[in-house]
Amino acid sequence: MGLFDFFKKDKENKEQQQALDEGLQKTKTSFFDQLSKAVAGRNTVDEAVLDDLETMLVHADVGIDTTVKVIERIEKRVARDKYVSTADLDVILREEIVALLDANSSATGSRAILDRPDSPGSPFVIMVVGVNGVGKTTTIGKLAHRFHSAGKKVVLGAADTFRAAAVDQLIIWGERVGVPVISHGMNTDPAAVAFDAVQKGVEMGADVVIIDTAGRLHNKVNLMNELSKIKRVMQKVIPGAPHEVLLVLDGSTGQNAYLQAQEFTKATDVSALAITKLDGTAKGGVVIGISAQLQVPVRYIGVGEKMTDLQLFDRTTFVNSLFKK
């Protein structure tokens, strides 16, 4: 890496850190307000503090199951260390949340595409799922921008054919980013679109193919059948495709996002998560809860409107930002 590249990378890292800090501002404000109330007037971490801390984590949309795990970890620390002051609580919380997320961390999957050599033989195929309105198509566009900006060849497949807006939106994103979009229009066979997109990716020596899919949850059986069919036809071109099933969730909906995630994990094998719209909510704790409860790694988080505001999720960076005062 040359000196110019080093300074460019350093500038990008600082900009991303700033975007993350600003994007989590509402969550941080709410989080620390609650934490301050939990320890007000107390010197040591006792049962009363832990009870208040448990309430605070639930209110931050960390989720009940994950909150119980965090509290149990802190109780063990208190029992082991005998004396823990409330001044140390944020440090302990930070360490235990990072440790909890560590079980689901992964540098594999689509986040490793940037480290793969160009044209490795066949494209890495990502099938993107999620209900309408969570930012699914926008997430695909931002992912395409991330890969394309890194010099990777990208193909998009507009297989959410039940909404004209979804097809049109993806085409607009393709034009904006500068990558081809395979589309058959509205009310066409989603599996046929996916097949053609993967085939196009193979023909042009693409690095990654990203397939948009319909986000209907009103009939789980139909959704399951449709996603299974899309998988089968893609495997006729590339055995083993898709290599990643990325579930997009709206972080601003809090625990409702977890309920959506439960439904989709029943309908298909979700292997990674992208959690969007964290910049407009105080419910950023849902990132911790969903990852821990589903045992599925968070790959990306959305912290703003800009194309660069879809960030790779790094558990330590995220938690440090969350605790930054």
From TrEMBL:
GTP binds at residues 130-137, 212-216, 276-279. Part of the signal recognition particle protein translocation system, which is composed of SRP and FtsY. It comes from Hymenobacter lapidiphilus. It comes from the Bacteria. Keywords: Cell membrane, Cytoplasm, GTP-binding, Hydrolase, Membrane, Nucleotide-binding, Receptor. Residues 297-310 form the SRP54-type proteins GTP-binding domain. It catalyses: GTP + H2O = GDP + phosphate + H(+). Its main location: membrane. GO terms for biological process: SRP-dependent cotranslational protein targeting to membrane. InterPro entries: AAA+_ATPase (IPR003593), P-loop_NTPase (IPR027417), Signal_recog_particl_SRP54_hlx (IPR013822), SR_rcpt_FtsY (IPR004390), SRP/SRP_N (IPR036225), SRP54_GTPase_dom (IPR000897), SRP54_N_sf (IPR042101). The gene is ftsY. Pfam families: SRP54, SRP54_N. PROSITE patterns: SRP54. This is Signal recognition particle receptor FtsY. Belongs to the GTP-binding SRP family. FtsY subfamily. GO terms for molecular function: GTP binding; GTPase activity; signal recognition particle binding. GO terms for cellular component: cytoplasm; plasma membrane. Its EC number is 3.6.5.4. Involved in targeting and insertion of nascent membrane proteins into the cytoplasmic membrane. Acts as a receptor for the complex formed by the signal recognition particle (SRP) and the ribosome-nascent chain (RNC). It is a peripheral membrane protein. It is found in: Cell membrane; Cytoplasm.
